[in-house]
Write a structure and sequence with these properties.
Uridine Diphospho-n-acetylenolpyruvylglucosamine Reductase, domain 3; five-stranded antiparallel β-sheet; 11 strands; binds adenosine-5'-triphosphate; tRNA_Ile_lys_synt_subst-bd; tRNA processing
């Protein structure tokens, strides 16, 4: 097997990812030649594997890298039951994973509800729920996802259409926690071409999801009923790369990682201001770092109590002295902590109560909430 530069990058990134999660070499013996079985209670790393090229490459490398560190490595394979023959695809993927030495290999069958958010979103939700449950049941230390730089570029383009501001270009975080389970994406520096190359380097077979449009004619756009991500991958990104004549995928992915750092810093600043200037009832802790969602590091709740706070009060004078970017971030985080959707027109109107106060009336918010200023305090609560 040729030890290609893409293999070196992938192995290096995988090792750094594991190390950043506290999963380094368990014992010097594992770094020496010869086969060493990891201890039965060694930390467990699980690869979420669809059987596609990216996750097959990740499964194979995780098996090797974990063995060299004394870690246990297994896989979780989710059958969404959305396509004919999906059980067979999942079964074949499980066989491949077992032949790579992964153990445990667990098949998870989920039911995807036809929710209003669309089939893709419902499938993703069901998948993450199943992955979290299985990881908890196995007391796994980490779940790895095989998203690549190509996926990251597509995500930025998708998010640009659905949200605005800095948060729309941060892409997917390299790691996040979901319901107490740690997830990481070690392949965010590799393109899909490179993961495909790694599969060839290692002689791995993979399965192409027909809804990805991988085999479709490059000269013809995919029909509009294909998933948006597939259409961006097949039509929009190649067109844009052609148009700009450069490596837009790398550019978008790099921008996402810079924007994510800026966003993290702004979040920390906003969090500190929350502690100083925002009070919740019943009391909510806002001192902890915010949780992140699987697909991005977007603003989420400011860690409310289990029941969630019902009312908030913002010290208007203290916040008025801040930069508008910080004011809006604090307002948005306060709304999220109350479980309210964040719409820019509401954030803007509350900001006017803070920075441009001239006796305005209350602002009506969703779920029966309102925001009103009394003296130097903005109260966000349900109408009485
Ligand atoms: N059915 C599944 N079972 C387990 N994990 C999955 C499944 N589908 C997706 N994943 C995880 O989420 C990542 C991203 O999903 P996505 O749908 O973009 O990938 P894919 O094109 O289906 O497969 P691959 O990334 O393996 O080529 C996958 O790389 C994999 O880690």
């Amino acid at each position: 097997m040729a030890y290609s530069s893409r293999l070196r990058t992938a192995i290096g990134d995988l090792k750094s990812c594991l190390k950043s999660q506290g999963l380094g070499l368990q014992d010097p013996a594992f770094a020496q030649h010869g086969s060493h079985e990891p201890l039965p209670d060694a930390p467990l790393v699980l690869v979420a594997c669809s059987g596609g090229r990216d996750s097959m490459a990740l499964a194979a490398l995780t098996s090797t890298v974990c063995a060299s560190l004394g870690l246990r490595a297994g896989t979780l394979i989710v059958d969404h039951g959305l396509q004919e023959g999906s059980a067979q695809v999942a079964d074949q993927c499980a066989q491949h994973c077992r032949s790579l030495g992964l153990d445990p290999v667990q098949l998870l069958t989920v039911r995807v509800a036809q929710a209003g958010s669309g089939l893709e979103a419902s499938a993703r939700q069901a998948r993450y729920q199943a992955l979290v449950q299985a990881a908890k049941a196995k007391t796994a230390d980490l779940v790895l996802l095989a998203h690549t730089k190509s996926d990251q570029a597509e995500t930025v383009l998708m998010d640009l259409m659905h949200s605005s501001g800095l948060d729309s270009i941060t892409g997917m975080p390299a790691s996040f926690r979901l319901d107490g389970v740690s997830f990481a994406r070690p392949f965010l520096r590799l393109t899909r071409e490179e993961t495909t190359g790694i599969c060839s380097d290692l002689g791995l077979e993979w399965w192409d999801d027909p809804s990805n449009g991988d085999g479709a004619d490059a000269g013809h756009p995919l029909p509009v009923d294909y998933p948006l991500r597939s259409r961006i991958r097949h039509d929009l990104l190649p067109y844009m790369e052609d148009f700009f004549g450069g490596d837009l995928t790398s550019h978008l992915a790099h921008s996402a990682s810079l924007a994510a750092q800026d966003q993290e810093y702004l979040e920390q600043q906003a969090q500190e201001l929350m502690v100083r200037l925002v009070g919740f009832e019943p009391l909510a802790s806002v001192a902890q770092s915010p949780t992140t969602s699987p697909n991005s590091a977007k603003l989420t709740t400011a860690a409310p109590t289990s029941a969630g706070p019902q009312a908030a009060s913002i010290q208007a004078r203290g916040l008025a002295a801040q930069h508008p970017a910080m004011r809006r971030r604090v307002i948005a985080k306060t709304m999220l902590a109350l479980g309210l959707p964040v719409l820019s027109r509401h954030v803007e109107a509350i900001d006017q109560l803070i920075a441009n106060w001239h006796g305005q009336g209350p602002i009506h918010l969703p779920s029966g909430y309102s925001a009103a200023r009394q003296k130097h305090v903005i109260h966000l609560c349900k109408y009485r």
